[in-house]
Structures are given as C-alpha cells and as structure tokens.
Design goal:
mainly alpha; Jann2411-like fold; 7 strands; globular; binds zinc ion
Length: 197
C-alpha cells in the first residue's frame, strides 16, 4: 500500500463515521493501487475534527504529538488497527476484529467522563484531551456501528474501490460509493466494452 499525505476534506460517503474511517483507504481492493490517506497522527486529528469527534477546545494535540512523537506514532498505529478491525468485523465477520473493537471500547470508557450537554437535556461521553483522545473517540464510533443494524452495510460495486457505506437509499439498491465517481466510470467502461463487442 502506498501512502500519501491527506488533503481535506476526507470522503464522507459512508453514512456512519466508522465507515467514513474505513474509506480513508482508497482502492482498498487493489493492492497495487491502494492509497492510505491516514499516515500520521496529524491526519488522525484532522479526520476526527472533520467528523466533529473531538471537543471544540481540543487544541494542543498537535503540540502534544510534537513533544512525544513515539506516543503519537503508537496512537496512529492503534487507530489504523481499529479502522481495519471495523472493516474485517463487518465485511469478513472476523471475531478477532470484534475483540479489538471491544477491547478499545472498554479502554475508551475507562478513560472518558460523562458530561452534561449544554444544548440538550442529555449526557455524553467526553474523551480524554491527551493523545489518546482520538483513539477513544474512534473506539466509540466503532462500537456504535457494530452494535447497530448492519443489514444495509455495503461495499462499492467497483472492482478496486473498496469504499463502504450504509445503503440508506429508498429502494436499498445503491451499488456505488458515488454516482459521479465509480458509478460513472463503470457505466462508461461497460458502454465501451459493449461497443467493442
Ligand atoms: Zn467506489
């Protein structure tokens, strides 16, 4: 798998942040073309910020990572393992992957605190503001996905793309990650193959 530094925004086709996380790998099903856009702790923080998974005042993470690069690298490794576990748990029914998510979720609960929401009469988990915060936030969304109804979990119909999503289309017949991307490219390819035949 080749790596590239990520550019905002990250794709938002998954219908659930845990699937959006899986989709930070492009061309997952073609080893030669696969690109991982999450290759640094800074990428992880950027991704979490885009999906609103960290406290608004969770500044300072970049500085913490700079001060302790070894811990930041370790957190990246865990986040990537969690991402792959989400994919393997849902699409390969891997029990080992489910265990990874369970373990990280329990750890995240142990490190987080319940806070009263300011704009609603509810309480929600607040993840730690240190380097382990992003990993905890991701463990929460992974657990949320895994314990929800997965009957509409799908993978793009393209041979190489590999992006995953919840099919919430009215007729549950969504085949492509995006109509403009994989949908269009595959339609054109099919049309050209027909013309040649
Ligand atoms: Zn696709």
């Amino acid at each position: 798998m080749t790596a590239s530094s990520a550019r905002l925004p990250y794709p938002e086709v998954g219908g659930h942040p845990a699937f959006d996380l899986v989709d930070t790998v492009h061309w997952r099903l073609d080893e030669r073309r696969a690109i991982d856009t999450m290759t640094s702790f800074e990428d992880v923080v950027m991704w979490c910020r885009q999906f609103d998974l960290l406290e608004r005042d969770a500044g300072g993470l970049d500085q913490l990572a700079e001060d302790d690069p070894a811990s930041a690298a370790n957190e990246l490794e865990v986040v990537v393992a969690l991402r792959e576990a989400i994919y393997q748990a849902v699409f390969e029914s891997s029990t080992a992957a489910v265990e990874v998510i369970a373990r990280e979720h329990v750890a995240a609960l142990g490190r987080s605190t319940l806070h009263r929401d300011t704009d609603a009469p509810t309480w929600s988990w607040r993840v730690p503001s240190d380097l382990t915060g992003p990993r905890a936030a991701i463990a929460f969304v992974a657990h949320d996905l895994l314990t929800s109804d997965l009957t509409s979990a799908r993978q793009c119909g393209d041979d190489a793309c590999g992006w995953v999503y919840l099919d919430t289309s009215p007729r549950h017949n969504r085949v492509w990650c995006t109509a403009a991307g994989c949908g269009n490219r595959n339609r054109v390819a099919r049309h050209q193959a027909k013309k040649r035949a």
